[in-house]
Design goal:
- The protein has 361 residues and is of the alpha/beta class.
- It folds into two domains: 9-156 and 316-359, Isopropylmalate Dehydrogenase, CATH 3.40.718; 160-305, Isopropylmalate Dehydrogenase.
- It has eleven helices and twelve strands.
- The protein has helices at 21-29, 46-56, 101-119, 133-138, 146-153, 200-203, 206-220, 249-263, 274-282, 294-305, 340-359; strands at residues 9-13, 39-44, 63-67, 79-84, 125-128, 160-165, 186-190, 230-234, 267-272, 288-291, 310-314, 320-323.
- The longest helix has 20 residues, at 340-359.
- The radius of gyration is 20 Å and the shape is globular.
- The model is unreliable at 169-182 (pLDDT under 50).
Length: 361
């Protein structure tokens, strides 16, 4: 039964057990901030989780509580519920930092279980730990990653990924300060994502850009307290094309898409040259940026806050956030993983659910 009040129940999919996902969960669980905005529930393997808790150590280790249904979960700082999914595989001897089809198959099973629970309203949101695409492929899963699996599982053909950062920096931090604008977060939505750069020009269109502006507006409303988000649209070419000198995509596609969005009542402006756009965005002038391709948005936002960045999948009927890092096989199961992105991802999931409850969305 879905929570109608209080902290939302957020399912954490363990991801690939050969990577840092289990350790990140165990490390985050020790932080009181992890429990402030949500009630976390692990969807994974209890035995792997016990190993991760021992790896992290500490004087007060949480008790692993295997559960058969999310309704039976009672998470706290001292109790870590883990939904048993029945993967049918012994994951105990999966070697850290290696591609293993058993780990890929289990990671897929964890995610599919979470999708089913979220669609049924038995959990309020999903926060995912990283998959490994090679392990998925070795397990016979054709999809390359989370986004494609989620889109198919939720029957959501019009979707996008937004990279989001809470409290973006407005200026270099002074001594004793963190340089953050209280309450101001910045989202970046990408019109094209995981494609070769040479394909970007073929995939861009007026309709595709308008679609992502709409998705950015809908995604940011729960995070701005219902206020209409201010959306900046990035140019594709240097200097926004310099009146056609460096390309005409700004005149033929991007500006018309912005005009279409404004006619629909969205607060969209642009196209802006990318070398100055993020200076204004991190200063608080915009709530979201629509970027034309992957690195145009990712580099800027991850430079501002790599450890705190959060992925949000847009266009789904459910709430899904994710850490912004990968499986990190090179440091897996060495006690070196950082949990900051997971803590932020769970907090953002809780904020989105709370915002939707307020707005009735």
């Amino acid at each position: 039964m879905k929570n109608s009040a209080g902290r939302p129940l957020v399912g954490l999919t363990m991801g690939d057990v050969a990577g840092i996902g289990p350790e990140v969960i165990a490390r985050a669980w020790l932080d009181p901030a992890f429990h402030a905005m949500a009630r976390p529930l692990v969807i994974g393997d209890p035995g792997i989780l016990r190993r991760a808790v021992r790896l992290v150590g500490g004087p007060e280790q949480p008790e692993i509580q295997p559960v058969q249904a999310p309704e039976r979960a009672d998470p706290s700082r001292w109790v870590m519920p883990c939904l048993v999914t029945g993967t049918g595989a012994d994951l105990g001897d999966v070697r850290p930092g290696t591609v293993d089809p058993r780990a890929g198959r289990a990671a897929h099973r964890f995610l599919m279980e979470a999708i089913d629970l979220a669609l049924a309203g038995r959990i309020d949101a999903i926060t995912t730990l990283p998959l490994n695409k090679y392990a998925l492929h070795a397990a016979g899963v054709q999809h390359p990653g989370h986004t494609e699996i989620l889109a198919e599982g939720c029957d959501a053909p019009d979707h996008a990924m937004m990279l989001y950062l809470e409290g973006v920096a407005s200026s270099p931090a002074a001594p004793g300060q963190d340089g953050l604008v209280a309450g101001h977060g910045l989202g970046v939505v990408h019109v094209t994502l995981h494609v070769a750069l040479r394909r970007v020009f073929d995939l861009l269109s007026r309709e595709a850009i308008l679609s992502k502006i709409r998705l950015a507006d809908g995604a940011m409303r729960p995070l701005t307290g219902g206020r209409r988000p201010r959306i900046a649209v990035a140019a594709l070419n240097p200097h926004a094309g310099e009146d056609g000198l460096f390309g005409d995509e700004e005149r033929t596609m991007i500006a018309p898409a912005v005009d279409d969005a404004r006619r629909e009542g969205l607060d969209a402006t642009g196209p802006f040259p990318n070398d100055t756009l993020f200076h204004h965005a991190i200063g608080g002038e915009f709530d979201a940026v629509v970027a034309m391709y992957h690195d145009q948005g990712h580099i800027a936002l991850k430079t501002m806050g790599f450890q705190r960045a959060v992925n949000i999948t847009l266009g789904l009927p459910i709430v899904r956030t994710s850490v912004a890092h990968g499986t990190a096989f090179d440091i897996a199961w060495q006690g070196r993983a950082d949990a900051s992105s997971l803590i932020a991802a769970v907090r953002v999931a809780g904020r989105i659910v709370a915002g939707r409850r307020i707005s009735g969305g």
